[in-house]
Each structure stands twice: as structure tokens, then as C-alpha cells.
Design goal:
It holds the Pfam family mTERF. This protein is mainly α and 372 residues long. It has helices at residues 17-25, 47-50, 54-61, 65-74, 83-95, 100-109, 122-133, 136-145, 158-167, 172-181, 185-188, 193-201, 211-220, 223-234, 240-249, 258-270, 278-281, 284-287, 290-307, 318-322, 326-333, 339-354; strands at residues 2-5, 12-15.
């Protein structure tokens, strides 16, 4: 059942979901501004006089002032949008059981959601999604993570993508987990001979726990991107067998940028004086933040070793030190000393951690599509 807020009243009135589908079926094929709503059991005549603007409509739909601030900060043009067009999308979301809190996440994820078209295949697409996710709650999570599942621009073939992964040995339950984890699985998945070769070189079988992570990551990645990241690892002396073996054990290395890998490897080799092969056994060294974890803790450990040669922190056990909670790390290596020494070490640690990367404040954040 779909709930709709009547004008001038805070009482929610139900009307059938089929009426919503009928209301959303009649669209022209020109632009997103051509979306219109036909007559339903709940009359929507005189929409423009019913709501003065989109803000009033969203507020009556259940959005708080804080929600509106967050929505308009991501999509300023929505303030001047036609309430009729906004209402059609809100009807769709209500029919799926989504409310104001989910709308904020949807707009934050896809700011142009209200400007995108919904074509006549909506009912069929919702049917595929419902049969795939089986649970209404899981379907809601998937839509919030990737609102494009509801939209259509010729790239979102849900049924074909699901069949492709099932042929590759990914179980339905695992695929659902991956769809929630990586929103671009439906829109970006593609496989060719080169990608299949990369997958086979990881040495994983379809029964492996890591298989679903690796196959979806390779599926949504561009071949050029994979080549670039493999070549970046090769600069530090790794063979392709070692690289794809690492991918099989820790698939998320494929999500790391080349800049991230270069910074971490440079610090590991130059400051920590560890062997490059160490990251094959301890991938955490690649994931840890250089500025807030690696640098302050390693430099503090080196300072402690210089003060007292009995302390041997840098070495094979350094990874366990790096993975500690900060409070535990400080208790074990700073607060255990006398007050004067502890204060000196704490000041050094705070100064080192507070040093920003050169040019970091002026760095522009750019993302191509969804993040991994």
C-alpha cells in the first residue's frame, strides 16, 4: 500500500500500488521535464495550485528542515522544480516503502534523481528487482545504495547482469551481498577474454570465499585501470603472479589508487626499511593511512628506540602495532614512561600526526562515477 499526504491535512491516506504504476506509466520520450501523471483513484488535479513549490511538497511528504537543507545542498535546482514532477517520484518511493530519511541518502548519492526519466518498463524492472532481492527490506537497501536501479538510460539490464554472474558461479545470495556492497555492479559489469584471464590468474575457484569479491571487482573495473594498477605494483619489484595472488587474498587492493599505493610503498621501503614483499603477507600496510597512522606511529617508534635501545618496535611485529586502537597504542608505548618522557613523546606524536600533506588543503576531490 502507498501512503499519500493530502493537502491541508497531516492524515495519511492509502491507495493501491497498481494505481501508482498506472500513474507513472504515461511519459513522453523527450526530456525528463515531460513526465506527467494520469488520473488515479486519488485525484491530483490542480497540482500546481495544490503545492506552491517543491519545498512545501517535500515538507508535507515528511521531510524535516534538516532533511531539506541536506537535499537542497546536493540538488539546489530542486527548489525551483515543478511540484508535479517531484510528486511522481515521491509516489514511486512511497510505493516501495521509502521515506524522508532514505530520500536524503538517495539525493546525496544521485543528486539528479528528480531530473532523471522513468520509462514504461518500470513495472517490469521492479518485478525483476523484487524477485532478485526477495525481501522488501533488502530491496529498499539496494535502491538507497543505487537509486539508478529505478531509472533507465539503456545501461541497467538487471536480468542479464544477474544471469551473467550466475553463469560465472556466483550464488544468488552472494550476488545480493555484492549488489549492496558495490552499487555499480548492474551498470558497469562487463567481461572479455582479458578480464577472464585476470580472474583465472588469481587462482580462486567458485567455492572460494573471496571469489565473489574478486569477480565483481574485476567485472566493474575497466581493463585499462587494471593494467595501470598492475604496472604500478610491478614498479616495486612484484611479479604478475604475486600481484594477482595478492588480489585473490585481499581483493580490495584493486580499489586502491596508484597514488595511494605509491605513497604507502615509498614510506614502507624508505622510512620503515621493510622488504617490499612484506605487503604480500601484510596487506594492511597498503590500506593504512600514511598521514594519520603509519607516519606518526612509526616515527614515534623510531624516537623511542633512539631514546632506549631496549625497545625494538620496528620489525616484523610492527603491523600489530599499527593495527592497534590509538588508545591502546598510547598506553603501551607512551603512557608507560615517566611523566616527563610521556609528555615529550605525546607532544611529538601530536605534532607528527598534525602535519598535513603538502597541498592537501587545496586538493580537489574528483570522482569518476560511484566510488568502489
Amino acid at each position: 500500500m502507498l501512503w499519500f499526504l493530502a493537502t491541508g491535512s497531516n492524515i495519511s491516506l492509502p491507495f493501491p500500488h497498481t494505481a501508482v504504476i498506472k500513474a507513472l506509466r504515461v511519459f513522453t520520450s523527450t526530456t525528463c521535464s515531460s513526465i506527467c501523471v494520469t488520473q488515479t483513484k486519488v485525484e491530483v488535479e490542480d497540482d500546481k495550485s495544490k503545492w506552491s513549490d517543491a519545498t512545501e511538497l517535500l515538507r508535507k511528504w515528511g521531510c524535516s528542515d534538516d532533511d531539506l537543507v541536506r537535499i537542497f545542498s546536493r540538488c539546489p535546482s530542486l527548489r525551483n522544480a515543478d511540484p508535479t514532477q517531484v510528486q511522481s517520484k515521491l509516489c514511486l518511493l512511497s510505493g516501495l516503502g521509502l521515506r524522508a530519511s532514505e530520500l536524503v541518502k538517495i539525493v546525496n548519492c544521485r543528486p539528479r534523481f528528480f531530473r532523471s526519466r522513468i520509462n514504461s518498463y518500470l513495472e517490469e524492472r521492479i518485478g525483476h528487482l523484487t524477485s532478485l532481492f526477495e525481501s522488501r527490506e533488502v530491496l529498499q537497501k539496494a535502491i538507497v545504495r543505487n537509486p539508478s536501479l529505478l531509472l533507465s538510460d539503456g545501461r541497467y539490464n538487471v536480468k542479464a547482469t544477474v544471469e551473467l554472474y550466475e553463469k560465472m558461479g556466483v550464488k544468488k545470495g552472494d550476488l545480493i551481498q555484492m549488489l549492496l556492497l558495490r552499487p555499480t555492479v548492474i551498470s558497469r559489469t562487463s567481461f572479455d577474454a582479458e578480464k577472464l584471464e585476470y580472474l583465472s590468474r588469481t587462482g580462486l575457484t567458485v567455492d572460494s570465499k573471496m571469489y565473489k569479491y574478486v569477480v565483481t571487482l574485476i567485472g566493474i573495473s575497466r581493463v585499462e585501470t587494471i593494467r595501470e594498477k598492475v604496472a604500478n605494483f610491478e614498479k616495486f619489484g612484484f611479479s604478475e603472479e604475486e600481484i594477482f595472488g595478492l588480489v585473490g587474498r585481499s581483493p580490495n587492493v584493486l580499489t586502491l589508487s596508484t597514488d595511494k599505493v605509491q605513497r604507502n610503498m615509498t614510506f614502507i621501503l624508505g622510512t620503515m626499511k621493510l622488504d617490499a614483499k612484506m605487503v604480500l603477507k601484510q596487506p594492511y600496510l597498503l590500506y593504512a593511512n600514511v598521514d594519520t597512522v603509519l607516519k606518526p606511529r612509526v616515527l614515534l617508534a623510531l624516537k623511542i628506540q633512539d631514546m632506549d635501545s631496549k625497545w625494538r618496535i620496528i620489525g616484523p611485529t610492527i603491523v600489530s602495532v599499527l593495527r592497534m586502537q590509538e588508545t591502546r597504542f598510547l598506553d603501551l608505548f607512551v603512557k608507560c614512561h615517566g611523566e616527563d618522557v610521556a609528555n615529550e613523546l605525546m607532544d611529538f606524536y601530536k605534532r607528527t600526526k598534525g602535519v598535513k600533506r603538502l597541498g592537501e588543503s587545496s586538493k580537489k576531490c574528483s570522482r569518476r562515477g560511484f566510488p568502489f
